[in-house]
Amino acid sequence: MARVKWQFDPAHSEILFKVKHMMVSNVSGQFKKFDIQLDTEGHDFTTAKASFTADINSLTTKVEMRDNHLKSDDFFDATNHPTLQFDSTRIIKKNDNEYDMEGNLTIRGITRPITFHVENIGMVVDPSGNHRAGFEITGKINRFDYGLKYNALIETGGVVVGDEVRITANVEVYHS
């Protein structure tokens, strides 16, 4: 079967992250510039080769001072590591619309294995005759595993920034 190269639709795709702040709330952010690559054998997503790259300098939490701190050496060190990268190594079908996507995530030059949960939202043929598919991809990392080392303590015990970062990507792809 022929390989299908899917194009990602940036107007209908996003890469988001969320982390605890002072152990009482969550701070959300996103990468405004990113690229997603996906190819499959036909429409069999278990054969997928998937990757994404996000531009660290495009991250936003809607607070400029915090964004600049996240881009600094305390966190992403955007000057020396301007992108983060994910490359899939294996897709495991769980049921008709759920998969585990194993792969390698690189942040700050540190590569670690990760498994993302993938939900296939659906597939349609659009008015232009393109095949479109949508996915919600979720996972989590421990930020210290990737050198995101800032760790200020608060008086009551606890930390300003939580260890766990939750990642969500909502992705729409298409091919003719």
- Specify the CATH class: Mainly Beta
Q: Write down the overall mean pLDDT.
A: 94
How many domains? The number is: 1
| Strand order in the sheet with the most strands | 1-4-5-7-8-9-10-11
Rg is 17 Å
Q: In what range is the share of β-strand residues?
A: over 45%
Content-based structural category = mainly beta
Low-confidence stretches: none
The CATH architecture assignment turns out to be Beta Barrel
Number of strands: 11
Q: How far do the termini sit from each other?
A: 16 Å
Largest sheet: 8 strands, antiparallel, barrel
What is the CATH topology assignment?
Answer: Lipocalin
Helix content: under 10%
User: How do the SSEs run, as a string of H and E?
Assistant: EEEEEEHEEEEE
Fourth CATH level, the homologous superfamily: Lipid/polyisoprenoid-binding, YceI-like
- Helix count? 1
Shape: elongated
What would you note in describing this structure?
By secondary structure, the protein is mostly beta strands. The protein has a single domain (3-175), classed as Beta Barrel (Lipocalin). The protein contains one helix and eleven strands. The protein has one helix spanning 64-71, and strands spanning 3-8, 14-21, 25-31, 34-41, 44-55, 59-60, 83-95, 98-107, 110-125, 131-142, 161-175. The chain has an eight-stranded antiparallel β-barrel with strand order 1-4-5-7-8-9-10-11. It is elongated. The mean pLDDT is 94.
Give the helices and strands, then pairings:
Blueprint lengths: L2 E6 L5 E8 L3 E7 L2 E8 L2 E12 L3 E2 L3 H8 L11 E13 L2 E10 L2 E16 L5 E12 L18 E15 L1
Antiparallel strand pairs: 1-4, 1-11, 2-3, 2-11, 3-6, 4-5, 5-7, 7-8, 8-9, 9-10, 10-11
